Amino acid sequence: QVGLVESGGGLVQPGGSLRLSCAASGFSLDYYTIGWFRQAPGKQREGVSTISSSGAYFADSVKGRFTISRDNAHNTVYLQMNSLKPEDTAVYYCARALGIGTPMHPGNYHYWGQGTQVTVSS
Q1: What residues form DSSP beta bridges with 57?
Q2: What does residue 36 show for φ and ψ, rounded to 5 degrees?
Q3: What beta strand segments (E) does 8-115 contain?
Q4: How many CB atoms lie within 10 A of CB 82?
Q5: Are the C-beta atoms of residues 4 and 92 closer than 8 Å to each other?
Q6: d(C-alpha 66, C-alpha 58), whole Å
Q7: Residue 102 pLDDT greater than 90, yes or no
Q8: Phi and psi for 120 in degrees, rounded to 5?
Q9: What phi, psi does 34 have (nearest 5°)?
Q10: Dihedral angle computed from the Cα positions of residues 61, 66, 71 and 77, in that order, rounded to the nearest 10 degrees
Q11: Residue 106: what are its φ and ψ, rounded to 5°?
C-alpha cells in the first residue's frame, strides 16, 4: 500500500528556512517521480518541485531558493526551502506519479500525502 507522510512545516519569518520531509512507504523511490506541490487559500494547487532518476525540476517562483533531494536508504524526499517569502505560505503536499520524469502538473500525480502547513510571516 502506497503511503506518503509530510513533516517539517511551521511558522518562519521572511528570509528564514525550513526543510520539509516526505516519508514514502510501499514502493521504491527509484522507480517513481515524487513531486512537491502547494496550495494557498483561494488558489489552485501548484507544482513546486519534482525529483526522479531523470533529474530534478523547479517552478520558476522557487528556483535558486529551494532544493530537492532524496535519501533512497530511508525512502524519504526532502524539500529545503531557503529565503522564504510571505507568498510561499501554503499547505505543502508531496505526491507520487506513476513513473519517472513526470511533468509537474497535479493531475499527473495519483498518490498524495495529507499536507503540512508552511506560514511565512513576521
Answers
A1: 50
A2: -110, 130
A3: 10-12, 18-25, 34-39, 46-52, 55-58, 66-71, 76-81, 90-97, 109-112
A4: 14
A5: no
A6: 8
A7: no
A8: -110, 110
A9: -110, 135
A10: -40
A11: -55, -35
Q: What is the mean pLDDT of residues 22-45?
A: 96
| CA distance from start to end of the chain | 40
In the predicted structure, residue 96 carries a pLDDT above the cut 90: yes
Q: Please report which helix (H) or strand (E) contains residue 105, including its range.
A: none
From CA 29, how far away is CA 35, in angstroms rounded? 11
C-alpha 69/C-alpha 79 separation (Å) is 7
Is the pLDDT at 26 greater than 90, yes or no? yes
CA distance 2 to 94: 12
Return the pLDDT at 52. Answer: 94
What is the rounded CA–CA span in Å between residue 50 and residue 119? 21
User: Which cell numbers hold the place of 12?
Assistant: 518562519
- Give the whole-angstrom CA distance, residue 18 versus residue 8: 7
For cell 505560505, name the residue: 89
